[in-house]
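Quick start: load a record and inspect it. Here is RNA polymerase sigma factor:
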Amino acid sequence: MERTLAKVSNLTSDDESQREAAVILAAKQGDKVAYKTLYHNHVGRVYALCLRLTGDRGLAEDATQEVFIQLWSKLDRFDGQSQFSTWLHSVSANVTVSYLRKQRNWVQRMFNIETSPAMEMPAEEDSGQVDLEALVVRLPQRARMVFVLHAIEGYRHEEIAQMLDMAVGTSKAQFHRAKQLLKTWMGCEDE
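Running the structure step on this input writes:
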């Protein structure tokens, strides 16, 4: 297995897809160094998606860990029909959504409350511009998740509805709600 990684290091940058395929194959065979390489190559993008979906750095860190734990057990399911990054993105979104459901259910049972993030208007930056990322984080959880998955990650409402266990119409309504809140917060309300 280590020979596989040694061969990988001799490839040119033009052979990046071959390099990643070799690392994936080695990781599938149980090579921990290869798995660590996959982790280091993709952790930033996975964390960014988790942060957008959770709206909380701590939850995003935990969800990122959960993604890579799940990845270890699901790696054999990657068949190479799509790019690894595309497949990992899908796994990340699904694991994060499941993770959030578990967290929400635990908090609700523990305190017998309905959770929702604060909807305060974030402070403007020194330049007078409002940070869109900060606004997205402030969206209510379901609206934020739908907005991120649809507007930023490019999922269709049918896919989102299946992932979040909701009706397609609910996904569209949550997306509309997110857009309206963002417009209001940015001072771009329709006349």
